[in-house]
Structures are given as structure tokens and as C-alpha cells.
Amino acid sequence: YMAKCPTRDIQLQEILFFSIYIMSEERPLNRSQYINYIKKRMRSKKGFPLVKFLKCLSKYVGFNLSQDDIFLFHLSQTLKRIQVETEFETESAGNSMLQFLPYFETNPIFQVIEELAIESFSSVPLTIKKLDVLEIFSLLQSVVLRKRNQHTIQVALMCRTYNEKDYIREVLKYHYGNKVAISTLDPSSIDLLFKYEEFDLLISTDIGDHKNMPIEHIPTIQVSSFPTPSELINIKHFIEQHFYGNLGIEPELIYPYGIDECPC
Fold it and tell me: Distance (Å, rounded) from C-alpha 18 to C-alpha 254?
């Protein structure tokens, strides 16, 4: 951009104008203050385009994006950069993501972001480029990953012996960490599964023990006394399907974060 200026004097004038422009902005001292500033701005007329964009995108992905402060903060930083680039006809974003653009621009979520961004910010002088959309796409993927990492299912673990119960509980905790909240039950207390409708999954070492009282309202996975890789993968798949079911989107719309392998 500065190379377009014919003389050094004009360059200095542009630098001075740019510096005054940056310094005159409201710049809160820390991220918490800045998030409060963003939310306050979203309640004003100036924040309507951002509110519209977040509302439409939240409806598409199935949860309220404005409740994620990290996403809100970084999205506002991206929009501020786009606004400065549009006004000064510059490009400050790095090109490290450029090589990945062909892999994602056909992704349905990428296309929805691009469409919503162009429509929502049409009243604001913002030039939304493909790389800008890819940046917002990566921020949205971060939100989904954050929710996925925080996602927990309630598991009822029912075993024949105390040593099975102790070992399998620790195996599940080792592989799935805070993704499972485990309550251990004895076969004699199976009626608790019907009394308390709080469990998402029943893991049992012998489903045959429950034939006299069939359990149909809770998904059940049978494991061995020493759980095998295939049994652990079945549990992993259930956790993923439960998460995406609650979110209301298809797993194929999200970038594949890892290969389908035994969690070991």
C-alpha cells in the first residue's frame, strides 16, 4: 500500500493518519473488558450486522455462538482487521492458510459462513475475501472442538465382581477422561436404571444377566472383563454420535480431527 504513494511526504501523512486512526479507537485494557465492550456494542445499532451474522450462524450450527467469549473476542479482532484492510486497501493477514483454502472452500459450513458474512455485513464497508472466510471457519471449528472437549455423558457401569468394576472404570477413565461420568452399579440394583432417568449409556460385562428385566430405554454396550480395542472403539463412536446428536449437525460437516483408530 505504501508503495503506491508517489512521495515520501505523502507516505508520512498516510502513516500519521493511520496512527491517529488506531490510537483513537476504544482499546480496553484486557480481554474481559473488551468482551464486555463487544456485548455492549452488540446492543446498539452499530452492532446489528454482527448480531445478525451470529444469530444466523448459530441457528445453522445448532447452538448460541455469542455465549462463547473466546470466539466472540477473536471474531471481533478478525472483523476489525478486515475493516482496516478494506478502508486502506491493504492486506495484513498472513498467507499460511492459503494452501489449505482448496480443501475447505467446498465445505458446506465454509459456504454458509461466506454467504452469511456477505449478507450480514452488506451495510458495512467490509470486503470479505476467501481467506477471511477461512479464518472465521477455523474460529468456528475451535468452538466445536471446545464444546466437544467439554462434552460429558452419564455412564452406568454394571459388573459381576468388584475387581471388574474397579478395573473397567479406570480403563474408561484412562481412554475417555472427563468425557464420561461413571456411576458403578451392582446387577442387584438394576432397578435404579429405571428409577433415575439420568444415564446416557449402560456398559455391562454381561448383558445376559439382565434378561429378566430388559433395558430398552438406555443404549447398552457389552464389554469383556478386559475390554478389547473393538469394544473401546464402540464406546468412542457412541460418545461422538451422542455429541453430534445433541449439536444437531452431521459429523461430515466438521473437519476430521483424527483417524478412526483404537483409543490407546
Answer: 39
